[in-house]
Amino acid sequence: MVVALWQQLSDGYMRLLMEPWIYFLLLAVVWLQYRRAERMERASFGVKVNFASLEWAISAVYGLLAGIVASSLFALLHIQVSAGEILAVWVLIFVLMWVDVRLTCTAYVGPLLILGSFILQWFVMRAGSQSIPWIRSLLNTPEHFSSLLLMTGILHVFEGVLVFLAGWRGASPLFVESRRGQIIGAFALQKFWPLPLVVGVGMGVAIPFPVLIGFSTFTIGYIPKTAARVAALPLILYGLLVTMGAFFARGHSVWILWVALFTLVAHEAIYQMIRRKEMHASALFVRPARGVRVLATLLRSPARMMGLQPGDTMIRVGGMSVNSAYDIHFALDQNPAYAKIEVVDLRGETRFLGTPVFENDPHQLGVIMVPDEHAREYAEIYPFSVGRWLFEWWRRKRSIGQKKSATMSERPNQGNSAPGS
Fold this sequence. Notes:
Order of helices and strands: HHHHHHHEEEEEHHEHEEHEEEH
Organism: Sulfoacidibacillus thermotolerans (Acidibacillus sulfuroxidans)
Region (Disordered): 402-421
Number of helices: 12
Structural class: alpha+beta
Largest sheet: 6 strands, antiparallel
Protein name: PDZ domain-containing protein
Keywords: Membrane, Transmembrane, Transmembrane helix
Transmembrane segments: 12-34, 54-76, 83-101, 107-124, 145-168, 197-223, 230-249, 255-274
Radius of gyration: 27 Å
């Protein structure tokens, strides 16, 4: 059994190495997402809070390990799909990523494919076109459909685990407008993991089946790690329920249809529940009555080195009370070589931190503070899609070209000026 498993996996990954284009496409989509977050941070705060290349590499490694483990589990459970279904899933993923990358999740792609197939079957039966070979194959795939749902359930268990372990990494701080019109601090949590899966298609043969699993939300009432772990548990429970439902629905077309509907509706319900919970949560990253609250810290900054955390409130710097960014700047100027800070954390406990400050260290110790009453600019959160990214890229290029053309037209042509003019 171990030898057969090894042969199937090695055959599948050898095929993936020979034809890695779909996997490379998913890696590129993940890279675009992290680059977008990086640009948003630079536009909002003038600095990069996270590095797109680092977050992309970490996601790729996590996805690679999860893909190998999931592929092994698929082989042990004898989960098989047809090559035609894999092609249909890839096509649907490609279409949905132009609308919203969040929709490329298997919880949407698999059930939408199954529901579309059942609708097609209904039309075919009414039209009497069952003699067409590829339509006839769709009418005889309940076992493969249950395998798609099994894969969806198992992958969501993996997704929940990945969200729990690393969903908080690379969270992007931002300023948003609350329901009361106040500018407050928040975090955008968007993680995507490209999984280089291989899956059996029968006779001990496996072919590549790369998929993208991801997690997207924002939080105003929790620190990023807590927000990710709160969202992870419903995902794991959802994955287990879908897995059990698909297992017992094997071979029963009607039950497969109901499980597909549950898979689609329940996933969207979980997403909307988490989002609505965040929208109605008490804002955490607002200006406190005393001190300056930390929203985020920069990588390799003195603030990160000394252990400042999101939600901490700086009460004193260098023995001086601080209530604004100007106060912090003034206190640091009094002793530019060493910073001693009194901090109150979210539990109300006081601790003292200190670190030497060097000439090349970031301004203000590398701390991004929650917005004060003078803040006017804030971010609008909208879904990320490849289509929108390309449209914005084309619009920026066109705007730059128009500015260059206007500059050239306004430049005087002194070489051809007429005498006496």
